[in-house]
């Protein structure tokens, strides 16, 4: 008997199926309308290990349990909306490959810490964004709008280049032990965004921002544990930026 000839799409589908594995995702669920307590729920799915955790969450929501709730937007590591704890570490679900997580064991997924969980993997981001707003994350200059651009040397731009990369995912802030225990602390992300303007040669409000961060809930709460630097999906040297703000506060009066 002759073997049926498969077309291009069928061959591609078979090749994809040959690479599937069965992975268990252990997700911490919380629905305040059902229970005041969170609980873990396991989902076993077939998936290509080269896919991302976000793809697995999509598969669970679309094919297994439509009540699973999480945030996502661009799905390409730019918006920062899908930050969550994956195997005990803060990561972006859209940038974390399943094959890098030892998928032969259950992969745990839960909401980031330090912020109130609203449902499943969604937390209340209002306190986080309030701290961000409090540090005046915008360029402050005097006079009317310029008739031409405000020039800046490459060296001056390089001074704060690292902290311009922040995508406000909250991975750094929600990895900070101080923030876990005291939600009044500004947190690493707010300080990083203040740093971006404090050291901008075109800005005129550095002194004002430094005074804001000199508060009891400001930079002096940092204990230099480097959790924030390790958690940043953009590779920002967060702890270094915080130390530079501390140094600016110490030296500004001399």
UniProtKB/TrEMBL annotation:
Gene3D superfamilies, alphabetized: 3.10.20.30, Alpha-helical ferredoxin
Family statement drawn from the similarity comment of this UniProt entry: Belongs to the succinate dehydrogenase/fumarate reductase iron-sulfur protein family.
Cofactor note: Binds 1 [2Fe-2S] cluster.
InterPro entries in the cross-refs: 2Fe-2S_ferredoxin-like_sf (IPR036010), 2Fe-2S_ferredoxin-type (IPR001041), 4Fe4S_Fe-S-bd (IPR017896), 4Fe4S_Fe_S_CS (IPR017900), Beta-grasp_dom_sf (IPR012675), Helical_ferredxn (IPR009051), SDH/FRD_Iron-Sulfur (IPR050573), Succ_DH/fum_Rdtase_Fe-S (IPR004489)
Annotated CDD domains: fer2 (cd00207)
Organism: Streptomyces gossypii
Reaction(s) the record says it catalyses: a menaquinone + succinate = a menaquinol + fumarate
Cofactor(s) in the UniProt record: [2Fe-2S] cluster; [4Fe-4S] cluster; [3Fe-4S] cluster
PANTHER family per record: SUCCINATE DEHYDROGENASE [UBIQUINONE] IRON-SULFUR SUBUNIT, MITOCHONDRIAL (PTHR11921:SF29), SUCCINATE DEHYDROGENASE IRON-SULFUR PROTEIN (PTHR11921)
Domain of life, per lineage: Bacteria
Tagged with keyword Transferase: no
Domain named 4Fe-4S ferredoxin-type: residues: 156-178
Keyword terms, alphabetized: 2Fe-2S, 3Fe-4S, 4Fe-4S, Iron, Iron-sulfur, Metal-binding, Oxidoreductase, Tricarboxylic acid cycle
Identification of the protein by name: Fumarate reductase iron-sulfur subunit
Lineage, uppermost ranks: Bacteria, Bacillati, Actinomycetota, Actinomycetes, Kitasatosporales
NCBIfam families the record matches: dhsB, PRK05950.1
Pathway: Carbohydrate metabolism; tricarboxylic acid cycle
E.C. no: 1.3.5.1
2Fe-2S ferredoxin-type domain sequence ranges: 32-115
């Amino acid at each position: 008997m002759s073997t049926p000839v498969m077309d291009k799409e069928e061959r591609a589908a078979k090749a994809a199926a040959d690479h599937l594995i069965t992975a268990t995702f252990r997700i911490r669920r919380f629905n305040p309308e059902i229970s005041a307590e969170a609980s873990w729920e396991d989902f076993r799915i077939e998936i290509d290990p080269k896919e991302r955790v976000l793809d697995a969450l999509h598969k669970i929501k679309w094919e297994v349990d439509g009540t699973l709730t999480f945030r996502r937007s661009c799905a390409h590591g730019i918006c920062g909306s899908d930050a969550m704890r994956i195997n005990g570490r803060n990561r972006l679900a859209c940038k974390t490959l399943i094959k890098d997580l030892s998928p032969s064991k259950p992969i745990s997924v839960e909401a980031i810490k330090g912020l109130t969980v609203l449902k499943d993997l969604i937390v209340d981001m209002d306190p986080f964004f309030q701290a961000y707003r409090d540090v005046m994350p915008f360029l402050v200059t005097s006079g009317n709008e310029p008739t031409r651009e405000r020039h800046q040397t490459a060296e001056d731009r390089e001074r704060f280049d690292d902290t311009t990369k922040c995508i406000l995912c909250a991975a750094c802030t929600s990895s900070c032990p101080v923030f876990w225990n005291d939600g009044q602390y500004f947190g690493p992300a707010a300080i990083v965004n203040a740093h971006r303007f404090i050291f901008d040669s075109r800005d005129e409000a550095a002194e004002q921002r430094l005074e804001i961060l000199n508060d009891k809930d400001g930079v002096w709460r940092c204990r230099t544990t480097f959790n924030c630097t390790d958690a940043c999906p953009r590779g920002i040297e967060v702890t270094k930026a915080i130390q530079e703000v501390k140094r600016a506060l110490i030296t500004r009066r001399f």
